[in-house]
Amino acid sequence: MLGMSRLSASLLLYLAIISCLVSGSRIQGVWLKMPAVVRVGSTVTLACQFDLQDTPLYAVKWYRGNYEFFRYMPTGRPPYIAFPIPGIDIDMSGSGAHQVTLRNVPLNLSGLFKCEVTADAPFFSTLQASANLTIIELGIRKPSVQVSSSIHRSRVNPLRVNCSAQQTVPPPNLTFYIDEKKVNSEYTRDFGPGLAGLEIQSPPWARNQTRSIRCEATVPGVYFISSNGVSVKYEPEPTSGGQRLLSYLACYCILLQLLITVFGVT
């Protein structure tokens, strides 16, 4: 009986030691910090933060898609190694255990990047994090604005304004402004990448007043470019009631002239 008790105690102690070792070897978390969008030809740093608690680091591996392009191993001599991947130019002086720096990034490098962290012996537990990187080619051309007429007269047909911007990847968001006041999106239409329209049935300003309309192309966190302002004056045509009154007056004048001619009324 005493032997069985000692065996049970030894087993419990063994299981406790194994539990501690396993718990200590777990990676608590991996976090990837990188910009979502960058300009073509720029330098970008991808940061990989992780929590190993008291477990030594075995390796950090970086992937573009399924292809490894950089590895950091603290016990290696040297501790880092780069794998040749077309389009990836690594700045080794700016790369290490927690980050990798890429120089002169090309458009075709857009895609999924992954950081994989492995703890050291005896369990070599692994955890990874991933994120997408989009690389855009940024032009310098301003958006262009065209209006149906610089003097809007119609009370029936809406005022139409079109905006065209240089297409980028990702495409820009287009926003209209009237005298620096943002136009509600319910008045705008999206015609495709870099194209949008604005329709206003009754211009929201007084008769014979002039307003400036512009559009702005934006890729959040990367750039915004505004068009030049286009002036539009609102000079509405006379109402149909006013036109009828003028018509009646003209008929009255003609009738009066006939009476004078026929009857010699003076």
TrEMBL record:
SUPFAM superfamilies assigned to the protein according to its UniProt record, in alphabetical order? Immunoglobulin
Q: Which first-to-last residue range defines the signal peptide?
A: 1-24
Which residues belong to any copy of the Ig-like domain?
Answer: 41-134
Q: Which domain of life is it from?
A: Eukaryota
Q: Which UniProt keywords apply?
A: Signal
Which InterPro entries does the UniProt record give?
Ig-like_dom, Ig-like_dom_sf, Ig-like_fold
Q: Which PANTHER family match?
A: BEAT PROTEIN (PTHR21261), BEATEN PATH IIIA, ISOFORM D-RELATED (PTHR21261:SF15)
What is the recorded name of this protein?
Ig-like domain-containing protein
**Which species is listed as the source?**
Laodelphax striatellus
